Recover the amino acids of this structure.
């Protein structure tokens, strides 16, 4: 692990006020005959599965998120206003590309990386999206597929948040089926050693403010990846209009990538990867992060609904004393606990070289589905006050719908898994 | 029925382009051996249950809503900007207080009134809320409980939308349990024939722009109703700040009613009704409207999801050809059809004097629950595009959550019905 | 309507102890200001939609079912022992083929017919299956497609229950897709005016005790219908082994129809109908009956769970006072009320010549789905006692699963409706 | 670990035909770029969390269950006929009380013990119930609370299946609320050193054939535990009638324990435990086993539904190629994988002394709920054939309902967890 991050983390570790594991409030008294008390914030003690280092990293992330991101979220979401500075802040703490070794990255485990995304998404899925795109999509693509020159030049800048990156796969007519993409690359007719990219990508997180664009395009019919650097694109060949009036993830910035004979040096093409393996490798990294992240958003909803239910009285009792309310809290706590265990298991398998993409489909699908279902139910606890954005759960609900949808809509993951279970594909109707 | 409304309606009725029942597109060819073809927009032919007059009124309302309201909704929702002019437009068409007889109201059936709310909510639940508050809450209160003088003076103005009305029951600390309200009335210590009202009502649709406030307050411990006229309130005794940054119903305007020794003439108190019977009578009228309205919002989601699924291709086929997509459409169509039948049945029973509040609880609860569940599922059909507000379903989803919550949260109606079914109350935990 | 049935019905009608509408127990006191009290057994007052005649027929059926069938059900189900005598009893009361005009049938409305099936299924879906096969499948087939000679000869005997009938469509390898049937008819090579039938039908209710078999077979590749009379079949050409050890519907008898060059006179072939229109016409009749019947089973579950919840005390209170219990009862009551309204609507449309098969798919699918879901939830109210068959709900649950599955599995109806809504078929994967 | 069991297990381990982990059929080919292929039988590779010893024990158990229990289940279930010999067989293999150290027990980990219950319940929940009662309830009670003399004398006989044990807590009027039990113990009025037990226990697995009864009764108002030995009870003081005509768990034997001044030696009373801590300790052991077991039943349903879907063709394709079918398989596989991880986590915590009862409530509740929900959905895959008991899923469905209900009904565990999360109890309505 990168020493500077470790140092920060350890310092926090030693600090008395460990935010998430020592709060007396989250534990009931142990039942007679048992040494251990139930901790509603971690009911199945997932923390036992994490190393001290991982816990320290989580604490660092949590502290940053609660102290620096949480106060900004309402205004950011209301105004669809993403603060570019956040990437720099995350970069300084070592949160970007955290599981990449070298290049100024923390070199932490996949679990640690997942815990970071969980803490960011506890605040907001949009903030987490901005980070995921930088880390799992842009940086992973460069790291896994780029030339050594690209890695040496770009990764440290991306890790520190000096450069912002994004990932251009989805097109207006091709969401769940990226293999049909229409964006093309062709050899530059006159300028040797260059390709020209043309086509449109949409729903691209970070695109309007990105410096680096990982773009997938068909070259002679084969999907290839390109690192497109905005600074090198002649005016008019690369435009990145923002998409406004979003119904969710309003604290992230989203846009299009419009390329019109945009020239890219040949050495910016990923040399060895062709087909969908390239983008899917990055997506799998992001998806595993989402499986952690969604649990963070769900836990925040649970925390807020529980607090509200304890404080709000109706018919002379706190709402928390109503059976129908308790059931909502219990269902959510259970799914959050299960989902965290499952994501952790896949992250461990990944670091051991024993994972496969279908496992990631399973935890991405299930954790997003359950986070969304439970967040919606927890929103009911707030009653009419749910309509005020200051109670936050409505924002998580809106966000989680999109989180369930992007990077593999739930049904698409069902069909990926269905194919793995049955050996038969059911994507294409007759 | 009020002749002017009838006239308008009949004209529309004769017009060739009946919007909702003759469109060829909504009918498949009949199956061999059957004269009737399936109409996905009205699968169980609820229209057979409506009179020609009711259908004509629905057409009038639908035309207005699609032509006048639909074009305004995106901007209104984005900016939380309710156009006060809408009440005047509705008033001109006879849509306000439509089932009141006399006082310039249309005197239509409860079914007709329900069909109007359905058409308005097909556009937006916020627009419907604004209308419901005017019609079912403010006007019904005046009509059922006010003195003849109040009726004669206020109803015609409310019916034409010249005056805007609202309904102050909910308080910051008392949502589901209005019997615990803290707002009080007391005799004016010096000015005879006046009461002084003090207290705060919140989440009041229309309050910031209302001229007339139906306010419920405790006088000597008994709940009484008052018609508070803004024009008569000395400065500082009545303030109505808007609540902004709402997570839904942003096309309606919502606020508080803050009363500080606000003087109200004794003749503005409802003379004969005490206790919760008064407000609950109005709420029951509104709730039945909501049971219709929610079906309108759901049908709009269905229409949009179906159109999208037919136009959007993935893996070489329209989405509509995928089994998982078809099931979503079918579930929604079924619940919309069932809910419309049930609401119609209760409306008919009401006009026949055979309804009771629990019936309304049943259809309010079920239709809101099912509208919300299905709208959420239909939103999935849109995939990533659901995140753009121009696809509208996300707005319905956000709205329907609040619609499910207000005027009796779903769980509260469960307990109302549970008490009716078992004879035992379960509202109050020990 | 057949006078004898009418007479019986009217007598019951006048009788003081109207079983289902006057029981004081099922009504709570009216809420202040309302004349009508909520009746948990008919929350949306579907009875208002029925004629006096229909109500009288329902009462007749209910009395018979509760007095004659209910006492037999436990032993019948335990031992998979269907009492053939039941058909005779039903025949005497006019319950068989009740909506056929003439031929000794009651000539009642489709609604009345539906109410009969509802009352029978209130006792047991297996008893209802035995009756439906006789009425909706065998008799409807003869009535709608048979020659006048067949009708005159067979219908009166079937109506009185002297002959037992069944319906052979499903084959071992062809359930949801009957168009692929393998049973064939060919002209008798030597005996003029005869066809030979060969093939196997399975899951045929009533087959082991049937006298008359409506069998669908391919003649020169076209599906044709035949009335096969057991008495005319030479030994060995028609065998009907029972299927034992069923997991549900154990009070009905189920078997196969094995035909090995079984000779059938040409005049027993239905002259004018070819293809799937024939069997589907009968199935649609049966399916509409099932939509009513499933509501009967659900209402019985509700009644039993409610009674148990009122009588059983835990933690010092009747279960009925628990919020989580009340919600289960309320959900079930709501779905039962909605389903009854919808089935009634389709039955009315059918009698008016305004129905189509997709409407029946909708109410069959939805009512079966909801009956099953709610019956399962109501079973939870019984706690451990659910494991005793004397509490009955477990039997309904097991039955309703099969009822949801036969005559169009829920998913198949989804695809039928999906095709009607979208115009695209999704039955056949690539 | 007991050497003899270990020896058996290791032998199996070395055997070539490892039943559950090496079957090529359950793995698809790895996706390009990944070494690991998805294994639908263990999608999240829970096996990585088990020691070689635990896997060996699972294999031993699985072999026995598939070879010895599976062939007996249909007849046992049909005829409600539990084969007492099974306890002896299980005893010989070391499966009884497997996580007890000493006394001839295997001394395996709690995870190993859970894997045994999973394999038994993969065949049938009734067989698992018979084993759980012996192991987790009777043996745990003796082991944790009995005198050394009782342990030395009874545990080895129970471990070998020579003695059959059961556990008497539930009473006819007290299911979810055992603290209200009516069974009493009093000092023998004449025979010193003896107590007299009177009262009735019901729904007691194994009672009709048990030799040893762990019975909980109130002595001077305090709950105490007694080891009642049938051989020592005078005739008429202890009767154990079987409960027949069960709707589920028919392969286990269930009955009552009726005690009428049944004399028990004072040394058979558990000396140090009073109150509900005693029975709840045993229940928690059993419940954790159930959390594993339910996953076994679910996996069997998945396996059978998948096989059926691959073999059964409709509309020209295997069912497994239908999207709606694939989704059912995927949902089930996901919940089985998640549930196994969660149960394993709690078992590990238990062995580390870090568990608490609420954790067990969580995994018992969730795993039972999800097993039941998914088993029901998988049953739909079978279509009409689900009605034949030879397809097995209907049996699992019926069993799992009871498994969800006993040892803490799902709602009760919700309230246990709700109390732990909120600090407020909601068991007792006003």
């Amino acid at each position: 692990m990168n020493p500077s991050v470790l140092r920060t983390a350890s310092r926090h570790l030693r600090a008395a006020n460990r935010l998430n594991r020592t709060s007396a409030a989250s534990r009931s008294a142990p039942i007679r005959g048992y040494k251990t008390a139930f901790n509603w914030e971690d009911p199945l003690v997932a923390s036992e599965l994490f190393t001290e280092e991982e816990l320290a990293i989580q604490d660092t992330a949590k502290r940053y998120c609660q102290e620096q991101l949480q106060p900004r979220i309402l205004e950011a979401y209301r105004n669809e206003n993403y603060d570019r500075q956040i990437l720099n802040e995350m970069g300084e703490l070592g949160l970007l590309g955290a599981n990449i070794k070298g290049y100024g990255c923390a070199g932490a485990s996949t679990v640690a990386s997942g815990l970071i995304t969980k803490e960011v998404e506890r605040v907001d899925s949009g903030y987490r999206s901005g980070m995921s795109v930088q880390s799992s999509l842009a940086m992973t693509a460069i790291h896994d597929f780029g030339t050594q020159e690209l890695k040496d030049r770009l990764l440290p800048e991306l890790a520190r948040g000096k450069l912002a990156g994004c990932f251009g796969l989805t097109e207006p007519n091709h969401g769940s089926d990226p293999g049909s993409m229409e964006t093309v690359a062709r050899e530059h007719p006159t300028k040797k050693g260059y390709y020209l990219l043309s086509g449109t990508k949409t729903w691209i997180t970070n695109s309007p403010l990105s410096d680096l664009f990982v773009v997938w395009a068909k070259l002679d019919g084969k999907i290839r990846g390109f690192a497109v650097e905005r600074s090198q694109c002649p005016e008019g060949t690369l435009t990145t209009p923002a998409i406004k009036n979003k119904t969710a993830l309003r604290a992230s910035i989203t846009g299009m990538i419009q390329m019109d004979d945009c020239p890219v040096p040949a050495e910016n093409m990923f040399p060895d990867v062709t087909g969908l393996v390239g983008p899917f490798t990055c997506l799998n990294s992001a998806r595993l992060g989402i499986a952690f992240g969604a649990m963070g958003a769900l836990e925040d909803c649970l925390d807020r609904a529980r607090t509200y239910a304890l404080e709000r009285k109706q018919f002379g009792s706190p709402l928390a004393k109503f059976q129908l309310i308790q059931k909502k809290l219990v269902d959510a706590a259970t799914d959050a606990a299960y989902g965290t265990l499952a994501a952790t298991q896949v992250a461990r398998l990944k670091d051991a070289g024993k994972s496969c993409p279908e496992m990631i489909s399973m935890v991405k699908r299930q954790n997003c589905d359950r986070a969304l279902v439970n967040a919606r139910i927890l929103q009911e606890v707030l009653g009419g006050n749910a309509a005020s954005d200051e109670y936050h759960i409505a924002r998580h609900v809106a966000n989680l719908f999109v989180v369930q949808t992007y990077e593999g809509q739930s049904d698409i993951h069902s069909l990926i898994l269905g194919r793995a279970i049955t050996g038969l594909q059911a994507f294409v109707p007759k």
